[in-house]
Amino acid sequence: MKRINLNENWKLKRLEESQQNSRFNIDRLDEILTDGSLPRDCVLQLKTIPCQVHDALIERGIIENPNIKGRNNDCWIGESDWIYVCDFSLDEWQGEWTLRFGGLDTFADIYLNGRLIAQHNDAFLPCIITKLDNLRLQNTLVLHFKSARKIVNSISSPEKYQGKVPAISMARVFRSGFHEYCGPIPELIRVGIYGHVTLEQSGIFGIEELETEVVLSEDLMRGTVSLQGTYAGNGKDLRIVASLKDDEGNIAAVCEQRGFSQDMVLHVENPRLWWPRTHGAANLYTLEVSAFCGDSCQDVVRRTIGFRRIDKVGDFDFILNGRPLKLWGANLTHMDTVSGCYNALRTGELLELAELGNFNCLRVWGEGEILADEFYEQCDLRGILLWQDFYLCYSMYSEEQEFLELCRREAESLVSRLKHHPSVLLWCGGNEMLLSRDYDHPGEYCWGEKIFGKIFPSVCAKLDPGRYYHESSPAGGLFANDPREGDTHGYTHLWYVPGSYYPVFLSENCRVSAPPLRTMQIMMTPGELWPEGYTNIMTKKQRLCWPETWNQHNTNNGAVKVGPVENYLDAEDPASLIYRLGAAHANYIKRDVERFRRGKPVSQAEGPRLTKGHLLWKFNNNSNIISYGIVDYFNEPGMAYYALRNAYSPLLVSFSIEDEIHVWLTNDTQEHYSGSVVVKLFNLPENKFTEEMEFLFSVQPDQSIPVGNLNGFLQFRREHVLVAYVFDRADKMLARNVDYVDIERHLIFPEDASIELDINDGDLILACNKFARSVELIGDEDGDRFGWMFEDNYFDLVPGEIKRVKILGRHKKGTIHAKPYYSKTESSICFGKI
């Protein structure tokens, strides 16, 4: 099959007011493609497609990137019409041709050589135009994007939807562009081409469509790959060959057929199994399907697949390849507010952070964007499971026939495209539709239920029957957010929710904190960061936990969604306020996620774990605002990220501090461990360990057990710190945890704690003379403090310990600084060749 990528030679132009929201006058194209008097009205020559309007304007310096400050000063972009123009030539134009747009956002009239050939109205669907009949040797392709803002505002809802279904939920637009929840402020509406544009000559031999289904037998001994193809060419002469190779290049199976006669099936005996990263190796196979005419290969399609079997045996109880599966991770939102174009570098950094953070699962959020095939291939390769939402979110939805049909086509497209990926764990109808009904219209019918209650599950049952379909997130129990059944969203900062201490599964759980100081200094002016005369004391008249100016860089009333800031000292400057918010966020994660990992109270120690998984809301910030993300807009991880990483340690030692203090071991590895747990009391004022206890243990995979209590210490002053070390039988340290029995506001940490630094074999080596609370590592290369990465950060260090931290990130040289939060002493060391 002949494929031509139309990714070059594009022009972009904003239409004048008189030409907007009407039928585009193609005869005036030359006149329209003339520079206007303002920079925003010039003709832009695009380097390549995909490229959305904001991408092009930012690259040319016509507008500032609104994500840097978190402020959108250019709402006119979403209120304007735009045209994309591409001139291209062909050597020949005979035969059947198909034009494919991987992604258009959103309302576009498409013209080829002066004729309107299609109209597009769904941001989540590819646009495929078949049997083009007006191609020439020289061609002009024009896309007229109409203002999504104006179209949505013009929608008139039927009376039955009034006050329940907003206009935005009557159209298939990228919803996050119509509110400022993810930033920037005010909302930013995307427009333009975000996927590849391809012209295919489909009348000759080739592969037009290929669906792949992968099944592993119950006994895990036989893998089957079924292929359903749509082929072009002379059926008599067409020969299709499918082969499967393992990751060493060995052929595992081959199948061949002539013509279009039947589906193809490949069988693999004793396949290498695909495991998530917490369970084993992510073994993959390469599927290659070739179309031949005689001995000449005319077309090839390649895909990676993996053999794994996931069975749901209870309420969010999953068994993977015969082994129990608990899910620990976070919600992945869209990468960047201004553009839906896939950014492999930015996404790759987030996936590396997911691996470093001990994640084995990411949720692709229902208010996010269509992600490229490369993303799913990377998750296959890295062993990261995906909870995949369909693209619905907090709202009721239209049930008009045209809208239902668009949603059905979206589901068919997404399932057909992704179902061969071993990383895709489950399908979910979307985000918080039932919850929005419960909150806003309790007891009423949830408009849109036909979509996620009938259409989506029927599509999944037909196209991908082996995967679990979940109606909506959250769903289950007596109400949508009931923690005792199905999944729940952890909104305990606003609601008292019965059963939230040991929920079945948390698909969201959140608190808010600020990004690191270096990011905040980009986001805000000095006067905003710390207004003159501001004091960080909460009173009856000043109830905010941060300055009023910070609200201009925050959405969704985040000041009431912070962690337990009351447990930390009032701030004296921006750095200490960022610490206060970050430490509170980190403390909330430590307390809650360690409890979820234990999965049960000590009174049920012999029983099964009640909590099956936890996905934090949210992983990444899409804009430079104060929000829920534990990784900021620049992919800089904060205190909360490292708290989550530690709480997700595959072998976790933790304390349940209640009427008694119990020491727990939670084993989510595939290994059996035995040895001893040593718990020590460290006296802060005296700067020394005062007592210790030792417990022997044996813990199996997927087991969570209390190994002992600390009653043997009798009573001790709350100024003591708890330190636990886990050793195997060879005295190798397997895990460690530091915890407190009093709030930090009451504790006095040494101001003269100093860190001794060394570098050995790419690792940073640290030791301290006095207890070092929250040691922060910062790198600096000629003033550049971004892009550094450390295996661990914001950790507590105890005298007598030697800590090794891998130096990661993009920097190969610079200066590394280490400073405990309460100490006045900062240490530094040169890294690499400066």
UniProtKB/TrEMBL annotation:
Keyword set for this entry?
Disulfide bond, Glycoprotein, Glycosidase, Hydrolase, Secreted, Signal
One biological-process term from Gene Ontology? carbohydrate metabolic process
Using the UniProt record, give the first listed, main subcellular location: secreted
- Chain ranges of the Glycoside hydrolase family 2 catalytic domain: 378-439
InterPro entries linked: Beta-gal/glucu_dom_sf, Beta-mannosidase-like_N2, Beta-mannosidase_GH2, Beta-mannosidase_Ig, Galactose-bd-like_sf, GH, Glyco_hydro_2_cat, Ig-like_fold
Recorded metabolic or biological pathway in which this protein acts: Glycan metabolism; N-glycan degradation
Give its localization.
Secreted
Query: Where's the Mannosidase Ig/CBM-like domain?
Result: 660-741
Purpose of the protein = Exoglycosidase that cleaves the single beta-linked mannose residue from the non-reducing end of all N-linked glycoprotein oligosaccharides.
Name this polypeptide is given: Beta-mannosidase
Q: What is the lineage of its organism?
A: Bacteria, Bacillati, Bacillota, Clostridia, Eubacteriales
